[in-house]
Write a structure and sequence with these properties.
With 426 residues, the chain is an alpha+beta fold. It has helices spanning 13-21, 45-49, 58-67, 77-92, 119-133, 145-157, 173-178, 190-198, 204-209, 212-219, 221-230, 261-282, 319-333, 366-386; strands at residues 3-10, 30-33, 40-43, 71-74, 97-102, 105-111, 137-142, 164-166, 248-258, 284-295, 305-316, 340-348, 351-352. Helix 10 (212-219) packs across helix 11 (221-230) and helix 12 runs antiparallel to helix 13. The longest helix has 22 residues, at 261-282. The relative contact order is 0.11.
């Protein structure tokens, strides 16, 4: 029995999540903004119909949005992450194997039925996700990952397909591939797309049929795998277990320029606390820390962009240890009369927490190590239960003015008990 590769992708995921927790916006044009309410990063179908572009700065289209009555929301990352987890949990029951590709996308594998057509299966999956989670999704089904991506894109673009397309039973698959521009093929970047067009390869079908030798000379084995995927030969297996991360980064742009050392120390501490939480979730320790800062290139002064790195004598994911190493870097990077727009923390030389190479001159007794690990576990558990920041480090400050601006933030209706909607029955 043949295997099928499936790609499930959330439609306008951020905007759809906002509609789940606020039914009043269903059917209305809605956009979601990026950090500090900067640019539009998600649009509902109604907003798309108004011609609102993706990535445009909010201040440039603010009057247009108000004129059309568009609902504007700040990014609610806690909501989106929780809805993503619920979506992936639902998909696990429908697929034999699952690869979480992004916050709103997942690849899966299952065997084809005797009839060979999985369209009815895809429609049933789509109905369940919409019924249980309120999220519209598109389902693309094919023999390979690249073809499943194309099928998913076509399922979204054609309303007659109702969000589901099984490319294996498509009567004219070649014509469909010919309608997919080369820039829209998964794995084709801007430079490669230009190279292809200069040689008359303008769509997915032409890329599939072009001479393999020419593509190999340009892209090597990566290009050959892409072409073989378009020809129906699976070359990209599902990634069931994500490989260990090599680096972990937390960075943000400030809502207003940071001009004091104390404010910079608070920002670095805040980002480091979050990065340390991620480390422990990943089961890793860091052997080096890099702190970087940058001023705005538009403030009329010369651009200031610097970074500093410290190597830890003993790899750690203990927040206190990492703070003690990183905060002196903030002092080294700070410059008076250099207003900073952005700062970040990069944890490097990551290694598994299962193995720890001790330092001869810096002994760490096992009892002390276990006590610190239990303390970090308790802090993480409290913050998961009562919300991030329930237990905070003093170095992060209290209500700093530089924190990310989210003036149009929706409720944390799925992750915070205090914000769960209440329905009064009469």
């Amino acid at each position: 029995m043949a295997l099928a590769t499936v790609l499930i992708d959330g439609n306008n995921f951020y905007a759809s999540c906002e509609a789940v927790v606020d039914p009043a916006v269903v059917g209305r044009p809605l956009v979601v903004l990026s950090n500090n309410d900067g640019c539009i990063v998600s649009r509902s179908a109604e907003a798309r119909a108004l011609g609102i572009a993706m990535g445009v700065p909010y201040f440039k289209v603010r009057q247009q949005l108000e004129r059309h009555g568009v609902v504007v929301r700040s990014s609610n990352y806690a909501l989106y992450a929780d809805m993503s987890q619920r979506l992936m949990t639902t998909l696990e029951r429908w697929l034999e194997e699952l690869e979480v590709y992004s916050i709103d996308e997942a690849f899966g594998v299952l065997h084809r039925p005797v009839t060979g057509d999985l369209s009815a299966w895809g429609r049933a999956l789509r109905r369940e996700v919409l019924c249980h989670l309120g999220l519209p999704v598109a389902v693309g089904i094919a023999g390979t990952k690249v073809l499943a991506k194309i099928a998913n894109r076509a399922a979204k673009a054609d309303p007659a397909r109702a969000g589901v397309l099984d490319l294996a039973v498509e009567p004219d698959a070649d014509a469909l591939l010919a309608r997919i521009a080369i820039e829209d093929v998964w794995g084709i970047g801007r430079r490669l797309a230009r190279w292809c067009r200069l040689r008359g390869v303008a769509d997915a079908r032409a890329l599939r049929d072009m001479p393999s030798g020419e593509l190999q000379r340009k892209c090597g084995v990566v290009g050959l795998r892409l072409q073989q995927e378009l020809r129906g030969q699976a070359c990209l297996p599902l990634v069931r277990v994500a490989p260990p991360k090599q680096e972990t980064c937390v960075s943000r742009s400030f809502s207003q320029p940071v001009e004091s050392l104390e404010a910079l120390r608070q920002a670095v501490a805040t980002y480091l606390v979050r990065a340390a939480e991620k480390l422990r979730q990943q089961g890793q320790r860091a052997g080096a820390i890099t702190v970087f800062v940058r001023s705005s290139p538009f403030n009329g002064t010369s651009l200031y962009s610097q970074a500093a790195t410290v190597v830890l004598p003993l790899a750690s994911n203990d927040t206190a240890v990492l703070l003690a190493a990183a905060l002196p870097l903030a002092e080294r990077l700070f410059r008076p009369r250099k207003p900073l727009q952005k700062a970040g923390v990069l944890l490097q030389q990551l290694q598994s927490e299962d193995l720890l190479q001790h330092h001869l001159l810096l002994p760490l007794p096992l009892e002390q190590q276990q006590r610190r690990e239990r303390l970090m576990a308790v802090i993480d558990a409290l913050n998961r239960r009562f919300g991030r920041g329930a237990v905070q480090w003093a170095a992060c400050g209290l209500r700093p003015a530089w924190t990310m601006r989210r003036s149009r933030l929706s409720r944390a209706a799925t992750t915070c008990l205090a914000q769960i909607p209440v329905v009064q029955a009469r």
